[in-house]
Write a structure and sequence with these properties.
CATH topology: TIM Barrel
CATH superfamily: Divalent-metal-dependent TIM barrel enzymes
Distance between the termini: 9 Å
CATH class: Alpha Beta
Order of helices and strands: EHHEHEEHHEHEHEHHEEEHEH
Number of helices: 11
CATH architecture: Alpha-Beta Barrel
Length: about 270
């Protein structure tokens, strides 16, 4: 079977990036990755970050950039990530009040469309990275995620389907990738055990105001070490025209994050990826 380039979402190793960007990028390369997806520049300029990538032999293919940051100074922001070498820029997350069913959702879609047009004008492609809250039904019965992609044209927005959150949202990841064939250039590979539960977003750093004790059955795992069917996901990615797959593990718990990243890469290599 044809394979695709494999990258690492650097949010996986953010604790190490905060200590030493250059050393962490070298370790990511040593773990078997040739591509990365930045999530923040850790105080570096675009030129400085690009120089470290070039020195290490890594290429940035996409970056997670907060929508507010892109809206604040669109040209400067997009130019920075183009300098780094990104082909894609991802809207990574929507805060409460901006999500499907919230009053601000339609306004957010207008903002995403605006940024997508700006990306297209600069030769970049805007993608959207989902969680599970986009699988809330709209009044007409459509999922919020589908409503988004039907409202904004493919010229202004492509998908970055996160396979973990698609599964948590109640859908089959491979089937959902195929649903967006031709519009899914980047696919997130993420594994987990357990099922959807309260306080789940605390695992990705989103704090809850609820003071009740956390009873969480959901945990992230290195790719191939949880419940996801990755042979099916990878096959669907290839058949649907994806250009890249990106490993992400939001929380590695007791496993050092670089070790977890290597475990994911080693599993994919065992599948000849």
């Amino acid at each position: 079977m044809k394979t695709l380039p494999v990258g690492l979402q650097l949010y996986t190793v953010r604790s190490e990036m905060e200590k030493d960007v250059a050393a962490t990028l070298k370790a990511v390369k040593a773990a078997g990755y040739d591509y990365v997806e930045p999530a923040g520049l850790f105080g570096l300029t675009g030129e400085q970050f690009r120089a470290l990538l070039d020195k290490t032999g890594l290429k940035a293919i996409c970056a997670h950039v907060a929508l507010a940051e892109m809206l604040a100074d669109t040209d400067k922001c997009l130019d920075t990530y183009k300098t780094i070498g990104c082909e894609y820029i991802a809207v990574p997350y929507l805060a409460e009040g901006q999500r499907p069913g919230d009053e601000g959702f339609d306004e957010v879609l207008k903002s995403i469309d605006k940024i997508g047009a700006a990306c297209a004008a600069k030769g970049l492609v805007l993608v959207y990275h989902n969680h599970d809250f986009e699988f809330k039904k709209m009044p007409d019965g459509r999922y919020g995620l589908d409503y988004m992609y039907e409202t904004i044209s493919p010229e202004h927005l492509q998908t970055e389907l996160d396979t973990c959150w698609v599964n948590v949202g109640g859908e089959d990841p491979a089937a959902y990738i195929r649903k967006y064939a031709g519009r899914c250039p980047v696919v997130h590979l993420k594994d987990f055990v357990g099922s959807k539960s309260e306080h789940m977003y605390e695992l990705i750093g989103i704090k809850s105001d609820d003071k009740e004790p956390v009873k969480n059955t959901f945990e992230f795992r290195p790719v191939g070490h949880g419940k996801q069917n990755f042979p099916a996901i990878l096959e669907a990615s290839v058949e649907s025209g994806a250009k890249y797959v990106i490993v992400e593990q939001d929380n590695t718990y007791d496993i050092p994050c670089l070790e977890a990243a290597k475990m994911s890469r080693d599993y994919l290599k065992s599948l000849n990826w």
